[in-house]
Write a structure and sequence with these properties.
CATH class of the largest domain: Mainly Alpha
Number of strands: 6
Helix content: 40-55%
CATH superfamily of the largest domain: 2-methylcitrate dehydratase PrpD
Low-confidence stretches: none
CATH topology of the largest domain: 2-methylcitrate dehydratase PrpD
Number of helices: 21
Largest sheet: 4 strands, mixed
């Protein structure tokens, strides 16, 4: 059976009683983190402009957990953009799975009156579909200019929505093919409003793909593995695996790879170095005017992604290692209140950024795509003293270095404060922790 058809059959067969308990836990965490970052990002300009231009009519799906509602496709588009607007959302599979899957599932779930258990199944369907594509190409998509979240996300969201709509195997396969033809996202747009737009557009694509397939809209059921199909089209090296058998439902990617929860609202490629810098300044206080040079050792792949070397806005600074290091020294933290234009433009930040040197390596960690075996920061002071941080192999919040329940709630609460949430953090967190026993409409209810 072709890959596209195999995925369609997997989606059609998936049910709550087939899910490993750990898969449910990861999905629940994905909902919690994504909804927190969605609310935090809902007042960003990109979200305001999306609402203004789309001008969606009233409908059954909630916009960013507020009072406004719209049809599900527009809600997923806007909510996905909001969830990725601050680049604070979870990471995995070379992208940001939850920021696409959760907005699509919630919007369609509210429309259909779906149960929380069905939404968790849909999340796992989307995650496993994304993971199956991810494992078939070891090429680094960023080096080709692709944004994996937009590419894999459209297919993953189509799978999730096909699951929610309980499509049969054939229609689920066609939904996936429709999602694949809507995949998009260019890395050149990182550091602008268009990067979060990629996530929102992928969520929108997933809903439309499943709806069209259900209505009889046709697509090729070999669209993923065809020589002119998805996998070959996006492959940086043309060495994609289009023929091996999928082990869906046997080898659960969500168990072995999970998701990483971001501790800092910046590109994940900065996180190991930020950990190193913050550990260093906590042990040895450093003043900005004492610094002669900061050296950061990372992979060449990470350096490619971190394209902004002298940013002057909070949005651009999210993709700047230079800013991350300067913020670590000046503020001794890298948080939401540092990722604003006023802080980025401070003279001492701008001066420190010019003292950062990036040293790259082409040696990669075999278990962490595109990363060096470890990242390290060294600070040379004006008096000749050099301070080196301990190399960091896994960022705080990585699946193998998870945040505690208290840290997860702290981030969630901070996000809801930043977005002036209509629902108290404790109330919404409790709902999401019990997602399997609640409906989509109950989860988004303001009361």
């Amino acid at each position: 059976m072709s890959l596209t058809k195999t995925l369609g059959q997997f989606i059609a067969d998936l049910s709550p009683n087939r899910l490993p308990e750990e898969a449910v836990r990861v999905a629940r965490l994905g909902f919690i983190d994504c909804i927190g970052t969605m609310i935090a990002g809902r007042r960003e300009d990109c979200v305001r402009i999306m609402k203004q231009v789309l001008a969606p009519a009233d409908g059954p799906a909630t916009l960013t957990f507020g009072k406004e509602k719209s049809a599900a496709p527009e809600a997923a588009w806007i909510n996905g953009t909001a969830a990725h607007a601050l680049d604070y959302d979870d990471v995995g599979l070379r992208g940001h799975p939850s920021t696409v899957l959760v907005p699509a599932i919630l919007a369609e779930g509210e429309t259909l009156g779906s149960s929380g258990a069905d939404m968790v199944v849909a999340y796992v369907a989307g995650y496993e579909t994304w993971a199956e594509l991810f494992r078939r190409d070891t090429g680094l998509l960023h080096q080709k200019g692709w944004h994996p979240t937009g590419l894999y996300g459209a297919v993953g969201a189509a799978a999730a929505c096909a699951s929610l709509r309980r499509l049969d195997a054939d229609k689920a396969a066609q939904a996936i093919a429709l999602g694949a033809s809507q995949s998009s996202g260019l890395m050149a747009n990182f550091g602008t409003m268009t990067k979060p737009f990629h996530a929102g557009k992928a969520a929108h694509a997933g809903i439309m793909a499943a709806r069209l397939a259900e209505a009889g809209f046709t697509a090729s059921t070999d669209a993923l593995e065809h020589p002119q199909g998805f996998l070959h089209a996006i492959s940086p090296t043309g060495t994609e695996d289009r023929t091996s058998e999928a082990k869906l439902g046997e080898n659960w990617a969500i168990l072995t790879q999970g998701i990483g929860i971001k501790k800092y609202p910046t590109c994940y490629c900065t996180h190991r170095a930020i950990d190193c810098m913050l550990d260093l300044v906590n042990e040895t206080p450093i003043k900005a005017d004492e610094v002669k040079k900061i050296t950061v050792n990372i992979s060449d792949y990470f350096a490619t992604v971190l394209r902004n070397h002298q940013p002057d806005t909070g949005l651009a600074a999210k993709f700047s290692m230079e800013f991350a290091m300067a913020s670590g020294i000046v503020a001794k933290r890298v948080g939401l209140r540092e990722l604003i234009d006023e802080f980025v433009q401070r003279p001492e930040i701008q001066a420190l950024m010019r003292k950062v040197e990036i040293v790259t390596s082409a040696e990669y960690d075999p278990e962490l795509s595109g990363a060096a075996p470890a990242d390290q920061v060294t600070v040379e002071l004006a008096d000749g003293k050099t301070i080196a941080g301990e190399p960091v192999k896994r960022a705080t919040g990585h699946a193998t270095r998870p945040l505690t329940e208290a840290q997860i709630f702290e981030k969630f609460s901070d996000c809801l404060d930043a977005g002036a949430s209509d629902i108290p953090a404790g109330v919404l967190f409790k709902r999401l922790s019990q997602i399997q026993s609640l409906s989509a409409r109950r989860i988004t209810a303001l009361q």
